[in-house]
Structures
1.
Amino acid sequence: MRVRFFAEQHWWYLSFSGDEGWCGFALVQGDDVLDAAREAHALGINPGGEVFGVSLPPERKPPLEWRHRLFTQKQDVKDFDSAMGGRGRMVSEKGEPRE
């Protein structure tokens, strides 16, 4: 893991997809989405494939139990959405993870 000694980084919601569709999501810190994807790779939680990232607002830091882990179940997305205030941004109208 890299140690940083400068400005606080953003938290990123990273959604991963591959040939078989959605592979999971992770919450990591980074300066930008590319840096966050690199951090996920360094942590061993990037399953490969394509990545889509959304920067979380600074006041919406994820709970400790949600940080630096790969979540692969669709229910995890619903649970995370509820934990972050249930605004439905991570879940589609059908309750599926947004890709």
2.
Amino acid sequence: MSSKSRVIFSDRYKMTHIKKFLLIVLGLSLILIGLIGAVLPILNGTLFLLVGIILLSFESTRVEKVVLSFVERNEVVKKWYRKLDQLLRKLFNK
């Protein structure tokens, strides 16, 4: 393996970790905004919570299992989850 290919591999490796870190930070930030929105009448916290949880489920299988078990029990959430999941997977190439 040449040194140039090692550098490219190393850069890709760093980018995947940076992307994963940013996705987790964004997901947690949206969940925090959603929790604030649940208390304040100005914000609609439900949408922020749902988007944040979906983003976290991209990186954590444990979160994904919990979300899917909840989604299966609630028809309204299932409809929104499917739409948001498809949109976010397109945006984040997941």
3.
Amino acid sequence: MGVVLIILGFIDHAGKELSGLPERTALSKLTVILLLLGGYGFLSMFYWAGAHSVPRRYAIHRAEIAASHFGFDPMCRRVLAALAIAPSSRECDGRGWH
């Protein structure tokens, strides 16, 4: 959970710096509390699943998943590639997105 909290904290800090708005202490405290609650809530589900012997992965996969690349069929891969290559219509110049 360490690196995820660091990344989310950086995104929060960078967003506040780039927005130029004055810092609000109450909002910062609420952000930290929500990040910690969400992170520990996420991790507690793994502990709960382990306590109830829920497997995280299976030894045998269905044939259609094992045959395709990362579980995606060819059409889905084409759509994802088109979305990744498509130019963005929005730009950020440091003052915001427009």
4.
Amino acid sequence: MGHPEKEPQVTGETRYPLQVAPTPYRTSDLYYGAFLRVACVPLLEVQRENGRIYFVFENGPHIKDLKREYFNRTAQVPAMSYADEIRAMKALCHEQ
């Protein structure tokens, strides 16, 4: 007849690669930050360092493409939404 199946033996602890969140993306460029907001990149926080404002966004593989499109002037976003985000981000700069 057949041999009874053996249970697999555990010979050590299972190790999983650590899932490390990417470092947030920072920019001090208000207009580029407004573009990222219109492009649906989540704004995580606004930081103030030495009198300068930094907009901190969620980082990901899409940031590189968005940056290239923005600075190559090939990005397209709705004009009114972009203008609204510029105003909103200026207001963030003036908050205390």
